[in-house]
Write a structure and sequence with these properties.
By secondary structure, this protein is mainly alpha-helical. It has two domains: about 10-45, no CATH class; about 65-115, no CATH class. Helix content is about 45%, strand content about 5%. The protein contains five helices and two strands. The chain has helices at about 10-30, 35-45, 65, 95, 105-115, and strands spanning about 80, 85-90. Strands 1-2 form a two-stranded antiparallel sheet. The radius of gyration is 24 Å and the shape is elongated.
Length: about 120
């Protein structure tokens, strides 16, 4: 007869590590016990660092450049600018593109932003 093993096995540790996010989501509706606001600024600071070789540079648009990305051409993405931030809404081309329900808002925002600049 073999003596019982002392300590925890690897399977017990793996099961515990897989169980913790599920418990967190059940208790706090968050996968990390609600600690995202504390870690997110630190991660964003690392990601936006000039020393990060994987960070993407953000492109700046003039209102004339942004007007070319209105969804009229299928080979270009659809961009919308709100408060100086440019968003890619190509996934909803039917709504934001030419003839879509939000296309009038897109033209209004473009004209409004061009007045501000």
């Amino acid at each position: 007869m073999t003596p019982p093993k002392q300590g925890m096995s690897y399977t017990t540790i793996i099961i515990a590590l897989l169980f913790l996010p599920l418990l967190s989501n059940f208790l706090t509706q968050s996968w990390s016990f609600g600690t995202e606001p504390y870690f997110r600024p630190y991660v964003r600071k690392i990601h936006e660092s000039p020393y990060n070789p994987f960070a993407k540079g953000l492109k700046e648009f003039t209102p004339q450049e942004l007007a070319r990305y209105d969804g009229s051409s299928l080979d270009r993405p659809v961009y919308v600018a709100v408060d100086g931030e440019v968003y890619d809404v190509s996934a909803n081309r039917r709504i934001y593109g030419k003839g879509g329900s939000y296309n009038m808002m897109y033209v209004h925002l473009l004209l409004y932003d061009s007045v501000l600049y």
